[in-house]
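Postdoc handover notes: sequence design on the structure in folder B. Input tokens:
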């Protein structure tokens, strides 16, 4: 899922953890699923931001010349306004867009 097109809320909202963990039956397992997806999203967002900012990087070592790059500022503001990775991951989990499996549970089924 593309994090830029997510309909996740920008601010934190209260969620019913028992309802959220109904699929797994375990609150901690649900939190770990969301946390792992949030880490994946955070890495992806960071790589995208660094790649976009790299285009505007200045390799001059001149200390006297300090300038403001409007494109860098606009890109940074855009990424600051995006929902946090944990909110996006929680929204994806609620919508059933995250695939997960527990190898320990799969081993017991065989």
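Designed sequence:
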């Amino acid at each position: 899922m593309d994090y830029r097109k997510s309909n996740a809320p920008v601010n934190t909202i209260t969620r019913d953890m028992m309802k959220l963990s109904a699929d797994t039956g375990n609150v901690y397992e649900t939190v770990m699923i969301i946390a792992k997806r949030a880490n994946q999203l955070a890495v992806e967002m960071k790589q995208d931001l660094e790649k976009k900012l790299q285009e505007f990087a200045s390799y001059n070592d001149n200390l006297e010349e300090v300038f403001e790059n409007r494109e860098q500022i606009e890109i940074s503001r855009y990424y600051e306004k995006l929902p946090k990775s944990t909110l996006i991951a929680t929204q994806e989990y609620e919508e059933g867009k995250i695939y997960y499996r527990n190898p320990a549970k799969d081993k017991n089924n065989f």
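Context for whoever picks this up: Helices lie at 17-20, 27-54, 70-81, 85-94, 103-109. Don't rerun without checking with the PI first.
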